[in-house]
Amino acid sequence: xxxxxxxxxxxAPIATHSQQPQPFPLQLSPAGTPPQTRVxxxxxxxxxxxxxxxxxxxxxxxxxxxxxxxxxxxxxxxxRVRWQANDxxxxxxxxxxxxxxxxxxxxxxxxxxRPGARMLLHVEGELKVRTVLQQIxxxxxxxxxxxxxxxxxxxxxxxxxxxxxxxxxxxPLQLPAYSADRHAAxxxxxxxx
Length: 193
Prior knowledge:
The chain is built from 3 helices and 10 strands; from the N terminus they run ββββββββββααα. A hairpin with a 2-residue loop joins β7 and β8. It starts with a strand and ends with a helix. About 20% of the residues are buried.
C-alpha cells in the first residue's frame, strides 16, 4: 500500500483507483431484428481491389475514401473478388461465392467477413477466377440473377475447378452449365418445407 504525508504531518494511505480498461459491450441486434453479415470491401488504385461481383446488400457503409462495408441479410448469396498487385504485376486473384449465415448455421471464419459465412465456392489464380467470372456472365446473360442461383451449383462448379489441373496433356475443362430449366427447378425446391 502506498503512503503519503498529509499537510498536518500525519501519514495516510493513497487511494488507488485502478484504471483498468472496461470491456466493450457486445453489439447485439435490436430486439426483433436478425443478425447480419458484414463484408469489408476496399480499393487502392493499381494495388488492391476487394469488391463484390454480385450480391444485394441491405445497405453499404462508406468508411473512408478506400474502404466500404456491405451488410447482408440472412441467407443472402454474394460473390467477393480479391485482386492484388505490386510493382512487378498481379500477385493474387481470389474469388469466393459466400452465403450469409443464419443463427443456427456453422459458419466459416473469413478475413473481412463478420461473423463469418458459408463458403459455396473458392478459387485462387487468374485462370480459375476468370473462368468463374465467365460462368457468372453466362448466367446473367440468360436473365438470371446470380444471387438466386442454387447453392449446389456453386459447390459443383468449385469441385470441378478444384479437380482441374491445367497443362498441355489435360483434357479441356467441362464445366456444368446453369440453364433456365435448372434454375426453375432450384427455385421450386427452395419453396418446399
